[in-house]
Design a protein that fits this description.
The complex is a heterodimer.
Chain A lengths: L1 H7 L2 H41 L2 E4 L3 E4 L3 H8 L1 H34 L3 H15 L2 H12 L5 H8 L13 H26 L3 H9 L4 H12 L1 H16 L3 H6 L13 H10 L4 H25 L9
Antiparallel strand pairs in A: 1-2
Helix pairs in contact in A: 3-14, 4-8, 4-11, 5-8, 11-14, 13-14
Chain B lengths: L2 H22 L23 E5 L5 H11 L4 E5 L5 H13 L6 E5 L3 H5 L21 H6 L1 E2 L2 E2 L2 E2 L1 E2 L2 E6 H6 L8 H13 L6 E2 L5 H11 L4 E3 L6 E4 L4 H15 L3 E2 L6 H8 L5 E5 L2 H7 L11 E5 L16 E5 L6 H10 L4 H9 L4 E2 L2 H4 L2 H4 L11 H12 L9 H16 L5 H18 L3 E2 L1
The chains are: A mainly alpha, B alpha/beta.
Chain lengths: ~300, ~450
């Protein structure tokens, strides 16, 4: 077919035509994704953006508000409170997860054999459990009536702290999130470690490097791009914190307030108070903050990670 | 955690579908299709009406209705108890589609949905024919002027449920006043006993009832005068009640646990709480969760709700529900027929009150010998209806609710959490709550007086 075309038409035209046809074929391949992308991401985003420009009062009906909802959002103590919580939470949970994941990956990279394979699987397993189920499970473990923590404490004749009480919920959630995600990050680091040419270690050993020096001077710097990737992942995820507190909320004696995190606040606004307009504005404001924090972070780590330069 | 972005996406998707909804049906509202019924439809050929309700004995009630009617059949779904159901209904209202034809609502929720034109006035569909079955107060709770927005089923006169084993062991009598309540709590605690009650943050309706008992009038609102509302939450009565319970909790005399959770129920079963300030329908729900069975059988009794001023007792109410027809119902006359007929037949009502799932508002039952003189099993044969609940119901004067009950409850709950955490005082919480609600009302376009 192509041959015939080349014979009949001047070469230049044929090249253009083939290119055009390639383009069409390309779009055809993208189409399934594109439909889903437009229908479930782009269109809803645009619609939410449109909603956020209006305001609806129970007694007044819907009116155009321009950017009023956004000025209101950033001055809203509830939104700020939630934002402050997720920023604080990120500052603690992200380093914690990365240290746990990095240590596990470095150890697993050193040891071989059946035990290593088993350990890898066990550390990764929490990630394979759906977040909702994980949170429910921890809710049971924390329970002051039937939880094993309380039962163990009772055996020693003391009262275990309730990890979802107002003062402790930060740590209770910290534990759930670290448990759930460290294994996943461990696998990313582990894969990066596996990709390093082992002759580098050999050279280092000949130069007299100890195992610890190899780990911290060679391995860690060489997987730094994976670490940056994890940081970005967990930063975006933590700023949008929702599932765990939402699931644990009903058994936390009110510790999870309607403005606990920005996403929970948006959920309450939309589905409890029927303020879809303001909820959209809160969601977009959160999106803006996430974008800002990640951008600042990427600029700050540009020199270290090769991934985003 | 990254699933959260999916949640955000779902939120936006939900919003889009809402938009699609209003486009599709050219401005009209459509209820959800009555398929996937939880119950078995008896007469397949009859038109169906979709009902949302959460009564524990609803399966029997629906079967009774369907067996007695050939021209209409109920298709029942349990969309959640209270708040979860209201969330789904609210979303359906915003989406202009997906609501049931008939919905079970508590009295404090009605005006919030009425103001959104989400409920149908049942007066043109013959609601006044069943008016005679109910007391004036009960009927007032579901109407606005001549308009009737729901048909009542049950009420929630409040009383003090207590454990006889704990009371006997520490030699105390049911407290008649709240001062006695606090004194008894201190006595039991000093003797090494359990906490006396519970100040749960997730039952703001109870706290509101107790505020009203002390003389608070949180809201004055009339749908006929839609724009104007009077809010009074920083009055002395509200401050006193929040302070009273806050202090009991701070001293460790009452628990700080949320209610209806598995842990709380386990505590009730195990005798962790000496009393339970609750409504007449509570035993039905507790029995369903396994309370008062086995070795706990017959250990509960009930006394009148403690008073602030025994010379002028005030009766208050928690919960109790009614059936309303949504404005999305396709056949409103048929839906109205269901709203008036369901849980109104003798078999269902009898089953309801015998299992203490409902405290019936139907006068026929309320005044029947069998009901009045019933020896209640949960209360170890006590004639609780005659001695406690019927007098409480008869003394109940009704209450006025705001059109944003959901928001108000959420804020009250947040303030209670703060009190329990020792972060605010009862008086400060009342002031803050008042300011929050006033600000919210203004942002919603109300003129606050």
């Amino acid at each position: 077919m192509t041959m015939a075309v080349t014979l009949e038409a001047p070469p230049v035209v044929s090249a253009v035509r083939t290119k055009r046809r390639h383009k069409k074929t390309g779009w055809l391949f993208i189409l399934p994704f594109l439909i889903v992308f437009v229908a479930f991401l782009l269109a809803p985003l645009l619609y939410a953006g449109y909603l956020s420009l209006y305001t609806k009062g129970l007694a007044t009906g819907t009116t155009f508000a321009g950017f009023d909802n956004y000025t209101r959002a950033f001055g809203d103590p509830s939104f700020r409170k939630g934002l402050w919580f997720v920023l604080k939470f990120s500052a603690v949970v992200i380093p914690l997860q990365i240290v746990v994941a990095l240590v596990a990956a470095l150890v697993l990279d050193e040891v071989t054999g059946r035990l290593a394979r088993f350990s890898r699987l066990v550390i990764f397993l929490p990630y394979a459990i759906p977040v909702v189920l994980g949170a429910l499970m921890w809710g049971f473990l924390y329970s002051p009536s039937f939880g094993p923590i309380e039962q163990i404490a009772t055996a020693f004749d003391v009262r275990a702290p309730f990890l979802l009480s107002q003062g402790n919920i930060f740590y209770g959630l910290l534990n759930v999130v670290t448990w759930q995600w460290s294994g996943y990050y461990m696998i990313i680091i582990y894969a990066a470690l596996r990709g390093i040419d082992s002759s580098i270690y050999e050279a280092a050993r000949i130069d007299g490097a100890s195992a610890r020096q190899i780990a911290f001077r060679i391995k860690v710097p060489m997987v730094s791009s994976a670490l940056v990737l994890i940081l970005i992942f967990s930063l975006i995820g933590t700023l949008q914190f929702f599932t765990e507190p939402q699931i644990l909320g009903p058994i936390a004696n009110g510790s999870v307030t309607p403005d606990f995190t920005p996403n929970i606040y948006a959920y309450y606004l939309a589905f409890r108070y029927a303020q879809f307009n303001y909820a959209s504005a809160i969601s977009f404001s959160l999106g803006f903050v996430v974008f800002l924090v990640v951008a600042i972070f990427m600029v700050a780590t540009r020199k270290r990670g090769s991934l985003f330069t | 955690m990254r699933k959260v972005s999916v949640t955000l996406l779902c939120l936006t998707v939900a919003l889009t579908t809402a938009a699609c909804g209003s486009d599709d049906d050219s401005g009209g509202n459509t209820a959800a299709k009555p398929t996937n019924c939880t119950n078995k439809v008896v007469h397949e050929e009859a038109p169906r009406v979709l009902v949302w309700a959460w009564y524990p004995n609803m399966a029997k009630v629906v079967d009774n209705f369907n067996n007695q009617h050939t021209d209409v059949q109920v298709c029942w779904t349990n969309a959640g108890q209270g708040q979860p159901e209201y969330e789904k209904f609210q979303t359906a209202i915003s989406a202009k589609k997906g609501a049931p034809d008939v919905i079970m609502l508590e009295a404090d929720q009605l005006v919030g949905f009425e103001i959104q034109d989400a409920l149908v006035d049942l007066a043109p569909f013959g609601a006044n024919d069943v008016k005679k079955n109910f007391s004036e107060g009960a009927w007032k709770d579901v109407s606005q002027g001549d308009a009737v927005y729901a048909i009542p089923v049950d009420g929630g006169p409040m009383a003090l449920i207590y454990r006889t084993d704990v009371f006997d062991k520490y030699q105390i009598k049911p407290p008649k006043t709240w001062d006695e309540y606090a004194a008894s709590a201190a006595k039991v605690k000093a003797a090494g006993g359990p906490v006396f009650g519970d100040f749960g943050s997730n039952v703001p309706a109870v706290t509101t009832a107790l505020m009203i008992q002390k003389g608070a009038v949180p809201f004055v609102y009339d749908l006929a005068d839609k724009q104007n509302i009077t809010i009074k939450l920083d009055d002395q009565a509200t401050k006193d009640v929040l302070t009273y319970w806050g202090e009991l909790a701070a001293k460790g005399l009452v628990g700080k646990e949320d209610q209806f959770t598995t842990d709380y129920i386990a505590g009730m079963v195990g005798g962790k709480y000496a009393t339970y300030v609750s409504a007449a329908w509570a035993p039905g729900y507790l029995t369903g969760s396994g309370v008062g069975a086995g070795k706990d059988k017959g250990k509960f009794a009930v006394a009148p709700l403690p008073q602030w001023d025994p010379a002028n007792p005030v009766s208050v109410n928690w919960g109790g529900s009614a059936f309303a027809v949504t404005s999305q119902a396709a056949d409103k006359a048929l839906a109205a027929k269901v709203a008036m007929g369901i849980y109104a037949d003798e078999a269902s009502l009898t089953d309801g009150w015998k299992t203490q799932t409902i405290f019936p508002l139907n006068q026929g039952v309320l005044t029947s010998d069998e009901f009045v003189n019933a020896k209640v099993d949960f209360f170890n044969g006590q004639t609780a209806n005659k001695d406690i609940y019927i007098p409480a119901e008869n003394a109940y004067k009704g209450a006025v609710y705001s059109p944003f009950t959901v928001f108000y409850y959420a804020q009250l709950q947040a303030q209670i959490v703060k009190i329990l955490g020792g972060k605010t005082s009862g008086a400060q919480a009342a002031t803050d709550l008042h300011n929050q609600i006033v600000e919210y009302a203004k942002s919603q376009g109300f003129t606050v007086k």
